[in-house]
Amino acid sequence: MLHFVTFCLKNKTYEMIFYRKYVKIIKKVGEIMKGYIHSLESCGTVDGPGIRFVVFFQGCPMRCLYCHNPDTWKPNTGTQMTVDEILKEFNTKKEFYKNGGITCTGGEPMMQLDFLIELFERCREENIHTCLDTSGITFHENPEYLKKLDRLLASTNLIMLDIKHIDPEEHKKLTAQPNDMILKFAKYVDDKGIDLWIRHVVVPTITQNDEYLYRLGQFIATLKHVKALDVLPYHTMGVAKYKNLGIDYPLEGIPPLDKKDAITAREVVLKGMKDALNHK
Fold it and tell me: Does residue 178 fall inside a structural domain?
């Protein structure tokens, strides 16, 4: 669950966010807010429309077996940056992003919701296209959380939603987290009229399954604002990071998926979508 608590200490007001086992001070009233940033990428070409300035947020509650960024898991680490500092970096190459914008990814950007809101609101003021790459895992129906989420969505042009697995039990095996709130998040932002790009990684023996792919398509068909569907082949490019961190790679021995198989998988998802729409 997600809870917001405000308290005073030594005449300063703090706001804290409690998310499962993570406890983090995310805002100190009267002081400049800083986010925990893993890294910045100046030329992202697969992170939304056009060329993107990509901000990798630090911290993620998911433990996806195929994650290629395990170095972004740990919260409250990385480089602390202000919104001004991030936009200063963006503006050094602003001309490259005239048909693109800023994408926030991670990690899970929504673990640092207040900072993300401030960044996207500044982007809106400066007419910068905003894209949020998220798993939706932090979604909760707490009224205070929804108020903050609505404020974020008001400055969000596009959400790239990574649906890891459509089956609840298989999702837990794959990510160590349930998927009920993720699917509710998809419907919530769709009801708000936010454009969605759906992403799904096809992993041999895990998500390379016609039944699950078809069911995913049926779910996607319930969403009205899906603008793109990326069915991505599993790869092993993150294995070296696990070795560097001294972590065993969970999918050792599972080969990368051939791109042709990803195309076939996408066709199954599309069939599920088509059949669901035809039965409406």
Answer: yes
